[in-house]
């Protein structure tokens, strides 16, 4: 007899978890910069080991979609709006 369980409710990230995530990624980035011959990717399993209750996918998604420094947040500029409209026009019927 198979049992099913309800999906686990998403746990909100705390400021402390965000701080730890940023610090561990910064450490990995500095180590990669010191070893310029070998480009290292972020080891998300290692990152998750520093944040109890979070797995590698949780950490990667939080970094990628909420914390990455190069991510621009806020309203779109008029130029960005125009680029989007033009892109839709060009590719709408393809």
Sum up the structure in keywords.
extended; 94 residues; Arc Repressor Mutant, subunit A; 4 helices; mainly alpha
Structure description:
With 94 residues, the chain is an all-alpha fold. It has a domain at 15-70: Arc Repressor Mutant, subunit A (Orthogonal Bundle), CATH 1.10.10. It has helices at residues 15-34, 44-49, 56-67, 78-91. It is extended.
Quickly describe the structure.
With 94 residues, the chain is mostly helical. It has four helices and no strands.
Q: What characteristic shape results from the CA principal axes?
A: extended
According to CATH, what is the topology of the domain at 15-70?
Arc Repressor Mutant, subunit A
The biggest sheet amounts to: none
Poorly predicted runs are: none
The CATH architecture of the domain at 15-70 can be named as Orthogonal Bundle
Average pLDDT:
84
In DSSP terms, counting alpha (H) and pi (I) runs of 4 or more, how many helices?
4
Approximate strand percentage: under 5%
**What class do helices, strands and sheet pairing give?**
mainly alpha
Helix-strand pattern, N to C?
A: HHHH
N/C terminus separation = 48 Å
Helix content: 55-70%
List the helices and strands and how they pair.
Elements: H1 15-34, H2 44-49, H3 56-67, H4 78-91
